[in-house]
Every structure is written in C-alpha cells, then in structure tokens.
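Mods, move this if it's the wrong board.
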Amino acid sequence: MSDAEDFEVVLDTLIRGDEQQKVVLNALLERGVNCKTFAPVNVLGVSRETGVNAKTAIIRLIENGNLERQPATDLSAHNNSYRTLNASRELTNLDEIEL
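Not the wrong board. Structure tokens:
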C-alpha cells in the first residue's frame, strides 16, 4: 500500500469510529446521561441496542473529552456511571485530530 492508501485506511477507521461514538453518545443521552450529574449506564444493554461495541466507543469518548466516568469510591468497585462534558450531541471535530 502507498502512503496515500494508508492515510485513507486510517481516515476511514477514524470516521467509522466517530460514527460509532455518535451512536453510543446518543444512546447515553437518551438514558439520561447529561452534563450536570452522573447517570448509571448498562453498557451491555447499549451494545445490544445499538449493535456497536459500546465499551470501546465509551473509552474513545472519554479519551476525546466528550464523556467522563464517575470516579469509584471503592478501589474494587466497577463503576459504569457517566456524564457528558458538554451539553452538545456533537463530537470532537475530526479536523482537530493529528494523524
């Protein structure tokens, strides 16, 4: 593959990932996740409903600064409560991501 083809593959992967994140973010917003308070989320339920690997999408949403996981109060606790970091349904702009 040429460098241009490699770039196209990377870009296609980012766009597809971005679409999956948007689907999961919308599902979270419909479940009451908002920017004011943390809300519990059944991640497996979101995966079943959307057909997307919600766990991976949630990790990317957190990494991109769109979502925050509530810190666990107990080190052994597994916490699935989240809140958005902005009130918008828009994701971080792909143009801001360096390749």
